[in-house]
Write a structure and sequence with these properties.
- The chain is an all-alpha fold.
- The chain has a domain at 164-320.
- It contains 15 helices and two strands.
- Strands 1-2 form a two-stranded antiparallel sheet.
- The radius of gyration is 20 Å and the shape is globular.
- The relative contact order is 0.12.
């Protein structure tokens, strides 16, 4: 995409920003589509509200229009993959997920909900996951033709993970509760321990949802994706403030289906805005305090959403053929 932009007679910085801004609109659209799966068809107002909330979000236009970052691009494909999963379009879903991984490693934050959906309902093959590296290689053919190795498609991400030897990078993660300086050096062992802790926490969520037979409805799967993505960013090391885009957008979807979460949505966005402001505008925000508030918001979200998920049992809605009036059994 960047190569194509070099052939356009426009200032490169503007071209990069326009590309991200285009995906801002697509991100708002896919958010409205996700809301449409969870609300009644005769209530289009909530889909419009979701579209406007994303498109007019200060976090979205600070990321793309102001900062010239590309988070809306990979986030769009991650949410498109989730939408297609809920629509039982498994081939297209994993193709979209492969595109997301081709763009940015942070797409891994949405992967846990796909794994849980597979083990919980078994309505698609485990082999579908092989489409992710296949798409990554296919989209990297131009680079491979110009001399990069095939395995560089994957090792570039492994090398990237070792670039920043810090426990946190301007995102108010749980680890900031243990430190009191601007930058947070961590040895490799602490990085590994943080990753293992994140995997353990996610496994505990999945085990709880499975043992308590949480309903696999559209709303619940979106709630699961939100909690798992939030857990990744809160507990993994070396997280930037921009990595929170996935759970920020999913929080909008959740609000449109459960207005009670509005009390949590406001501080959630406020925390991210403060983190953005600290980097972009040198605002004087205490990251340690933001981390404490962030942990409190995360805990409240996890408790509230898990309680809602466990209210109904054994309602699996990921069959190969969705239920509707036309295939209702005759009495």
């Amino acid at each position: 995409m960047i190569a194509c932009l070099t052939y356009i007679p426009i200032e490169p910085l503007y071209a990069f920003k326009l590309l991200s801004c285009l995906f801002d609109y697509l991100l708002a659209w896919i958010t409205a589509c996700l809301v449409g799966l969870c609300v009644e068809k005769d209530k289009p107002l909530w889909r419009a509200l979701a579209y406007g909330a994303v498109l007019l979000s200060p976090l979205v236009f600070l990321n793309s229009a102001a900062w010239a970052q590309c988070d809306s691009i990979y986030a769009f494909f991650c949410l498109a993959a989730l939408f297609l999963l809920l629509r039982r379009r498994y081939l297209l879903s994993f193709l979209a997920l492969g595109v997301a991984f081709s763009l940015k490693l942070q797409s891994v934050f949405v992967l846990p909900v796909f794994l849980f959906a597979y083990f919980r309902v078994r309505k698609f093959s485990l082999l579908w996951f092989l489409l992710i590296p296949t798409v990554m290689i296919a989209l990297s053919v131009p680079g491979i033709l110009f001399g990069r190795g095939v395995f560089d498609v994957f090792t570039v991400y492994l090398n990237q993970a070792e670039t920043y030897p810090y426990i946190a990078l301007n995102y108010p993660s749980v680890w900031l509760l243990l430190y009191h300086s601007s930058y947070y050096w961590a040895f490799q062992k602490l990085h590994s321990a943080a990753i293992l802790l994140c995997i353990l926490i996610q496994g505990m969520y999945m085990l709880l949802w499975d043992k308590r037979k949480a309903s696999m409805t559209e709303s619940n799967i979106i709630r699961m994706a939100f909690i798992l993505a939030y857990s990744c960013i809160l507990f993994l090391p070396s997280m930037h403030e921009r990595y929170s885009v996935l759970y920020e957008i999913l929080a909008v979807v959740i609000f449109c289906t459960d207005r009670k979460t509005g009390l949590l949505l406001v501080p959630l966005y406020g925390i991210s805005l403060a983190a953005y402001g600290k980097f972009l505008f040198a605002s004087e925000f205490d990251l340690n305090l933001l981390a404490a508030i962030n942990v409190a918001v995360y805990t409240a979200y996890a408790w509230l959403l898990t309680q809602k998920m466990l209210k109904e049992e054994n309602q699996i809605i990921l069959p190969k053929k969705p239920f509707n009036e036309s295939n209702r059994p005759k009495e």
